[in-house]
């Protein structure tokens, strides 16, 4: 039974979901804050469910010897070292929609609180001051709201702001003009937004492009008296520049849910009267927490129990319907890759994967990842389907994928060609109705061979006596033949023997096979079945 650790505080409903799905679960909500403890125990688990307090560092990942999946109950995954997880073959998932409405509502609440100085007025009233003249607010009706980052949350904010009769501008390089029209926002460049907005709200992830998107220079371009809301990520605003601008009056107020350093317990912004702060509460409603917890528990369980992948940030999705159909083809692709990889002795420049027939209409990305895994496994012990595409890219391997309709006799087949500086070597296979993989072509030579854990691959000239000599030698060596498959280009041309054997060949035995008359190459192949 797979075992999952929940290392942050999440809705108890998630624990019940894990159990109902047949997954053992340890709920240790304080472990996430203790990096040492987390690294000490993580090796026991197949899955890890987190919110934002758990920092899944390279060190934690190095200790995660069994971990297959990390699920973030929320959106931002900046607390997970995704490259390290990918390298180790760990799927990283999030729940991209579960808390969007809640976070958008928080941003709108912050905007209205800023407009009417509600927290300060509340504190003053409770202090018995009744300062009716001190708290003069502004209306939001007919004001301009500038949204930086108009994805899931930004779009909901735009919708709610339009309900408040605001004019909405959006700066988002990935927002298409058609989508902007559909959601009723004016798509603008950043400088235009800065110059025109009465309120600016941030809804981008924190990336190298968005870090300090509100820098001192950007803030200097804003309309005097602008109000700024950040419910996305600390680091999007230069906090020192914001402090100066709040003091000078360039910025009339700021409402911040997120900070450069979190937990934020001391920050110069806290001393300013025109700042409203919340402790990263954007996603904190019962509804959102229930949504993300249930979703993450379902996603992690589905992956561990069936191989279904949804909302992974480092692997293509595989739906529950696809998983059983894809599984035999994923295995075939990995075996073809392994076959070609084991025959390749020089550095690989590229891999071409051709899908023909019904398989071409399936989700080919997991099969490509599996094929690359097979190709690289003989060279790199640690490669797997999650890490293979990235490793291939890092190594400058060109990966070409071709899909086409059925042309030949096989209803579907996959051909994998490894390209080295010396040659191109192709191997093709199919899945029979019984779900078993078959090799149907090697180096352009047709054959029909079942793949078994231990095989002997021999190329030779097609001359009389070869099969007898090979069979006799294997008998003399005490090697039992389980299956003998032959194919040849044409009479007297190149021929291939693919022999399933019981047990494994030693180097010395392989040398004797290679020395047989007419043999050009002899290789022992191993397959994980
Ligand atoms: N405060 C909280 O508790 C809380 C809760 C949920 C989400 N968040 C954060 O809110 C942010 C937005 O979440 P989302 O679900 O809307 O994400 P999303 O991916 O749906 O949207 C992000 C948008 O930012 C845009 N973008 C990317 N780079 C940009 C750039 N350089 N300039 C302008 N736009 C850019 C993208 O095109 C995308 O449309 C994330 O950082 C997420 O972590 C915070
Ligand atoms: O888990 C939380 O409370 C915050 C979540 C939020 O930052 C997110 O990115 O989803």
Automatic annotation (TrEMBL):
Pfam family name, one: PGDH_inter
Keyword Cytoplasm: no
One biological process term in Gene Ontology: L-serine biosynthetic process
Catalytic activity: (2R)-3-phosphoglycerate + NAD(+) = 3-phosphooxypyruvate + NADH + H(+); (R)-2-hydroxyglutarate + NAD(+) = 2-oxoglutarate + NADH + H(+)
Keywords, alphabetical: Amino-acid biosynthesis, NAD, Oxidoreductase, Serine biosynthesis
Pathway: Amino-acid biosynthesis; L-serine biosynthesis; L-serine from 3-phospho-D-glycerate: step 1/3
Keyword DNA-binding: no
EC nos: 1.1.1.95
Residues in ACT domain copies: 455-529
GO molecular function, a single term: NAD binding
Family under the similarity heading: Belongs to the D-isomer specific 2-hydroxyacid dehydrogenase family.
Function according to Swiss-Prot or TrEMBL: Catalyzes the reversible oxidation of 3-phospho-D-glycerate to 3-phosphonooxypyruvate, the first step of the phosphorylated L-serine biosynthesis pathway. Also catalyzes the reversible oxidation of 2-hydroxyglutarate to 2-oxoglutarate.
Name of protein: D-3-phosphoglycerate dehydrogenase
Species per Swiss-Prot/TrEMBL record: Devosia geojensis
Taxonomy of the source species: Bacteria, Pseudomonadati, Pseudomonadota, Alphaproteobacteria, Hyphomicrobiales
